[in-house]
């Protein structure tokens, strides 16, 4: 499927339809998008990174100013990030007018979305779908106006399903981080466009750097 799509975001981002484009880069953006609530905007860095593929803007991602990190968190075989489920990671603005999708190939319309950290549920519906559980959920910004973590992950899944107008949330895969990556950067890896970003984290032990690798354009093979 030759499609330019979205994710993270951005991380981000995270992800989207399979792409064969050869030219991709990140361009700095100095202003937050319209459509974000005042509470959410107050948590974001004003400077973002725009994904540009074959000379055309695709999406832009802004990270939070400070990301809470779990103390003494250790990576497992499936979970690589020391972040709490539901935690706000950033905001994604989709600017491409067509063929923009999430990591599952679901269409994502032009607009602004919050990005929150999630983990693949451990249930019968997801057995064998991926060895990695980390991802970002894209939620319409107008439906996610409070940066606080919702009561349950299920609340986020329901909100995120509105992004693609389906029963499944819109997700962007997070790949295992690499601390030696130069960030911000964009790379083409096995038909996926991967954003490398570094978030400013804070734990009880002090300030830390949190490297992120987000499939922002490309779809899952599963």
Could you please describe the fold and organization of this structure?
The structure is a single chain. This protein is mostly beta strands. The chain has one domain. The chain contains 2 helices and 13 strands, in the order βββαββββββαββββ. It has helices at 38-41, 153-164; strands at 9-10, 12-13, 24-29, 48-53, 56-63, 67-68, 88-94, 111-119, 134-140, 170-175, 185-189, 192-203, 206-217. Strands 3, 4, 5, 6, 7, 8, 9, 10, 11, 12 and 13 form an 11-stranded mixed beta sheet that branches. Strands 1-2 form a two-stranded antiparallel sheet. The longest helix has 12 residues, at 153-164. It is globular. It starts with 8 loop residues before the first strand and ends in a 5-residue tail after the last strand.
Topology, element by element:
Layout: E1 9-10, E2 12-13, E3 24-29, H1 38-41, E4 48-53, E5 56-63, E6 67-68, E7 88-94, E8 111-119, E9 134-140, H2 153-164, E10 170-175, E11 185-189, E12 192-203, E13 206-217
Parallel strand pairs: 6-12
Antiparallel strand pairs: 1-2, 3-4, 4-5, 5-7, 7-8, 8-9, 9-10, 10-13, 11-12, 12-13
Q: Report on the biggest sheet.
A: 11 strands, mixed
Distance between the termini: 14 Å
SSE pattern, N- to C-terminal: EEEHEEEEEEHEEEE
* Poorly predicted residue ranges: 1-21, 124-129
Helical amount: under 10%
Taking Cα atoms only, what radius of gyration do you get, to the nearest Å? 15 Å
Q: Counting H and I runs of at least 4 residues, what is the number of helices?
A: 2
Strand content: 35-45%
The coarse overall form would be globular
**Total separate domains:** 1
Mean pLDDT, nearest integer?
85
Number of strands: 13
The helix-and-strand class reads mainly beta
């Amino acid at each position: 499927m030759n499609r330019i799509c979205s994710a993270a975001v951005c991380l981000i981002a995270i992800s989207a339809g399979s792409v064969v484009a050869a030219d991709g880069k990140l361009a700095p953006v100095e202003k937050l998008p319209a459509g974000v609530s005042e509470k959410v905007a107050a948590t974001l860095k004003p400077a973002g990174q725009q994904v540009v593929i074959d000379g055309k803007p695709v999406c832009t991602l802004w990270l939070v100013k400070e990301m809470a990190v779990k103390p003494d968190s250790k990576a497992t075989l499936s979970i690589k990030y020391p972040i709490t489920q539901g935690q706000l990671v950033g905001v994604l603005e989709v600017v491409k007018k067509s063929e923009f999708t999430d990591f599952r190939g679901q269409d994502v319309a032009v607009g602004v979305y919050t990005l929150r950290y999630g983990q693949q549920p451990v249930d019968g519906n997801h057995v064998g779908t991926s060895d990695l559980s980390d991802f970002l959920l894209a939620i319409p910004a107008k439906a996610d106006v409070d940066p606080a973590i919702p009561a349950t992950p299920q609340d986020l899944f329901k909100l995120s399903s509105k992004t693609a107008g389906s029963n499944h949330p819109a997700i962007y895969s997070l790949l295992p981080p690499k601390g030696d990556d130069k960030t911000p950067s964009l790379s083409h890896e096995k038909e996926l466009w991967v954003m490398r970003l570094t978030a400013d984290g804070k734990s009880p032990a002090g300030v830390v750097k949190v490297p992120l690798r987000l499939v922002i354009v490309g779809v899952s093979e599963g």
